[in-house]
Automatic annotation (TrEMBL):
GO terms for biological process: regulation of DNA-templated transcription; response to stress. Keywords: DNA-binding, Transcription, Transcription regulation. SUPFAM superfamilies: Winged helix' DNA-binding domain (SSF46785). The lineage of its organism: Bacteria, Thermotogati, Deinococcota, Deinococci, Deinococcales. The keyword Membrane does not apply. InterPro entries: HTH_MarR-typ, WH-like_DNA-bd_sf, WH_DNA-bd_sf. This is Transcriptional regulator, MarR family.
């Protein structure tokens, strides 16, 4: 399946490319040592627009349930990875790939909604585990088919090989950023 950018995005990219070329006075990229080549900036602009569009599409799946992306991610992590007794907040944070303070805020919001529960460890009162409530599990099982359908739909313009290539390239870029490259 072949998908094309909408006219607004294509026109924006062409305008940016043209503006940078004009600044370069037609002398080629980086000809004055100050004016950058448009290519890398356009790539990042596309990635930023893709990120925003993906967020909007995915969020439509669960927004009517009063969840945001952060809450859905935590519920999905508990659903997929937690044993029956739950996960400690540090484990949950690691599996959801988010920072501790962000995890704490998400936990509080989901506790207030009755979607998760916090159980203190009987042996160590300083430790607790987080797990889905029956209401939280029911919500995830209700929303998961629509979420999976949405992920398939947004990836449909890419072949299976292109999806693997995209995953590899995104992983390499992320690794480079995380390593400070």
């Amino acid at each position: 399946m072949s998908a094309r950018m909408d006219n607004d995005t294509a026109a924006l990219l062409e305008r940016i490319r043209s503006d940078w070329a004009r600044l370069n006075h037609g002398q080629g990229p980086d000809s004055d040592g100050l004016t950058p080549s448009a290519g890398p900036m356009l790539t990042l602009l596309l990635l930023e627009r893709l990120h925003a569009a993906l967020g909007r599409e995915i969020e439509r799946t669960y927004a009517a349930s009063g969840l945001n992306a952060a809450g859905w991610d935590l519920l999905l992590t508990l659903y997929r990875s937690a044993p029956p007794e739950g996960l400690r907040p540090t484990e949950l944070s690691a599996l959801a790939a988010i920072s501790g303070p962000s995890t704490s805020n998400r936990i509080v919001r989901l506790l207030e909604k009755g979607l998760i529960e916090r159980r203190e460890d009987e042996r160590d009162r300083r430790s607790a585990s987080i797990r889905l409530t029956p209401q939280g599990r029911a919500l995830v099982t209700h929303l998961l088919p629509a979420h999976l359908a949405t992920t398939q739909r947004v990836l449909a313009p890419l072949s299976a090989q292109e999806q693997r290539t995209l995953e590899e390239l995104a992983g390499r870029m992320l690794a480079g950023l995380e390593q400070g490259v």
